[in-house]
Amino acid sequence: MVSEGIKNQMKEWRHYLHMHPESAFEETGTADYVAKLLAGMGLEVHTDIGGTGVVATLSAGNGTEVIGLRADMDAINMTETGEPDYCSLNPGKMHACGHDGHTATLLGAAKILSEQKNFNGTVRFIFQPAEEPGKGARAMLEDGLLDRFPVDEIYGLHNMPSLPTGTIHTKVGGIMASEDNFTIRIKGKGGHASSPHLGIDPLVTAAQIILALQTVVSRSANPLDPAVISCTEIHTDGVHNAIPSNVEILGDTRSFSPAMQALIEKRMRGICEGICQMNGAGCEFTYTHEFAPTVNWEQCAAVAARAAVNVAGEKGTNASCEPWMASEDFGTFLERIPGCFVFLGSGDCENGADNIALHNSRFDYNDKVLETGAEFFAELVRVRLPG
Description:
By secondary structure, the protein is α/β, with parallel strands linked by helices. About 35% of the residues lie in helices and about 25% in strands.
């Protein structure tokens, strides 16, 4: 059990972090705050990993295995409209995704394990920058994270206000999707709105493309392999009475495997180029990979499920949860080393839809789950590195 002292400290840490949000690769104050707390617990601390990342190491016994625990630190460029006593002091920035809670949770786990040392091996506490844009994990890896601070396995969590408070959910395989971004530029021939026959209307072409793209999922993808294609923006250089010459469509896709990513890109490119050619318009199609899918390793998911049962009980654990089509930078780690990601339920309302969602300007992390998250991380270490 987590002591009252540590519970109160985690809440204090979380509220401080909430008041001082910093966005991607700007987490200098956050990293300094985290590093000082970890050093005060007696851990070996290294800073400036991948920009503003922090890695702390704690060892006990003579075990040679190393487990990594990861939390993300960055906030979102959003103005807070909620009114907690510890509201954001940084204009235009807030912890709308709960990374303040994730950071406080991992600090709590470090505090528990540094005091108890009831494990045999080494734990790396990895505080990652820039999760929101999907760049932080890659930056830490490119800065030699795994060479300088080797780990055998890695674990992470994300709060979920749509799930009951204190429950823990995970699964084998894809638990969060990839995110790929696309831009489609259509070049037509603009003119007066009264004389469409004298030009090449890129807006009509764009409409055909937007509708046709939905057939990729419905007719080209295996229906048992989830995928989403969303066109989210459209821009033109037309006006009320003028057919545009140029249209730009932007959006993203979500899926759980490299094979599906490749299929989506190939089919989208073919559809865009084919429809543009059919209408006599030019086409420029770009497709970029922003987030890798988060795919849990089977052996690590079993460890996470066992630790979850020990902390949340059988009824509070779901080891075969539904995946979420959102994306998480943690997937980049799982491409390199074994590991597992879990969802920590943080919803107070019985109907999860009634809870304030992530990325809402009124979102505030539920302090009630700080204890559960910290104890889960600590229990993972005890299960995986028994003393």
